[in-house]
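Customer ticket, subject: "Can you confirm the structure for ABC transporter?"

Message body: Hello, I'm evaluating your service for our small team and ran a test protein. I'd like someone to confirm that this is what the system normally returns, since I don't have a reference to compare against.
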Amino acid sequence: MSNTASSTADDRKPHVSDDQNWTDSVPPDTPWSFTEYINTYRKNAGHPVHILLSFFRGSGKQLTISTLALIAKQSPCWVLPIATSNIINIITYRDQHNLSELWINLAVALIFILQNVLSTWTVALQFGRINRNIERKLRGSLIVKLQQLSIRFHNETQSGRLLSKVMRDVENVEVLIDQTYRSFPIIALDITIAVVVTALHSPTVLLFFVLTVPTTVIAIYCFRRPIRESNHDFRSQMEQTQAAVAEMIEMIPVTRAHGLQHVEIDHMSKRLNYIHDTGLRLDVVNALFGSTGWVIFQVFQLGCLAFTSYLALNGHIQIGDVVLFQTYFAQIVNSISSLINLYPVLTKGMESVSSIGEILQADDVERNTRDVEPERLRGDVEFRHVDFRYSPEYPRVLHDFSLHVPAGQSLAFVGDSGSGKSTLLKLLIGFGVPEAGSVLVDGIDLKEMDLDAYRRQIAVVPQNTILFSGTLRDNIIYGLGDVDDSEVERVVREVGLDDVVAELPNGLDTQLGEHGGTLSGGQRQRIAIARALIRHPRIIIFDEATSALDSASERKVQDAIDHMMGQCTTFMVAHRLSTIRNADRIVVMEHGQAVEEGTYDELMAARGKFYQLKTMQS
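Agent reply: Thanks for trying us out. I re-ran your input and got the following:
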């Protein structure tokens, strides 16, 4: 097996012991200890600056070393103007200076220049560790929170938008932290040192410098709102487009099958045009913002040169001081200009901080950790007077539904679409909470049961098979860690996958393409069933498990299902009624209620709703 395959398999092993709920409570000494960032967002809701500052908690030593190195890195910019001014004055006014002063100034300047390599390396290493750790923890926090959020949240939110928050918004925050840290301290020091040195040499020149401050404030005030609005529009368009691209890729087989490529191309072209216009507007605003500030300060710099030259001609300052003041004024100009140009980065980063907060502050969390942690389940299930609706504005899907399924019994739900079959299975998995009534397993209400501990003892075979890019073995033993080869081979035989394994180039260690695209629909479905069976579940749920199978494959899978029926409580939803002939009980659903119940033969003999459905399929 390749290193890549091994990594893929290891990444999907449980990171905590079986008795830990890793989505809600993660040990702080593990790489998955990201809950602190989730709590940080919740405590500082609506305060992005507080959130940013809290990211540096615990990094004091590294931050101190990095800051000292950053000051040392910038120090040549403060020392060289003084050394240059001194050297010019030494050469110009020979009678007032000793030649040794020339060599001292050159030596000092050389030392400050050479140390720049070491200080730059120190900043890159120390602050790089801090910033990349923040980036890692932010993404980790989002991943943890996405695992905690309810299935309803994921059903209502486009996956492309979530992907944009995890990747693009976190990158924007990383850039924001990097740029502000490297810019703000240096800008403050540049301005402070330039002002202090200028004040010591000539208060008159300092007065001229002060005139630049109101101009900076006016420039920032004029451009602040359009930049903020442009960044918000662009980020929103990018999120929507990324979600649309993800959907387009998923829809390619359907689009191609119906010859609708031009429809998708036109649809995406409109979105790309929106991004083009929004992005262009943002680029123009940013460019105009920076250019206006640059022009204003260049005009002031020319004025500074003219003013200091006039003072030198009249003997108020030395000739070398003209270079000193000009250089320091340029530093002030560049510092304030950098501050202005930094504003779009700040706005973009703060927008991303808020965007990430939409996930980390979301309250629609599946509360899995509860008081009762089940031991070995027997599999006795009871739906007791259950009412359920997906949201307050929608009608009820289930109405006072009651049903008892003894442990080890196999039960099939049948009925028209929308009758409530799949909803019952979702409630049994814990993907929803009844509006009234309760779902009990072994006499314990699921509302009181630790769902993670419960779900580790059940298995689900969904209608739409989900596979990941890894080996066939990895997909079967997903999340179980090390499993004996003999156990894997047993399950493979039971679901009729042995012929598929024999044809694959590397057998169980064959790499599957993305979503198992190299396999047929029936083969993917059998892999999903193998993944369920290898867990030795006490309750197993088949939601249209044989819907994508041909007759031969269906027979093999049906044999595996029949084999499981005596080992655990089995629930099935099926539209193909011939596949549930061997179920102990069949419940016919209509408008959220059970209208018929019995064995296959009993329901056929009754000639009721089930008989009508079966006759329609004949």
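A couple of notes from the result: The radius of gyration is 34 Å. The longest helix spans residues 261-313. Feel free to reply with more questions.
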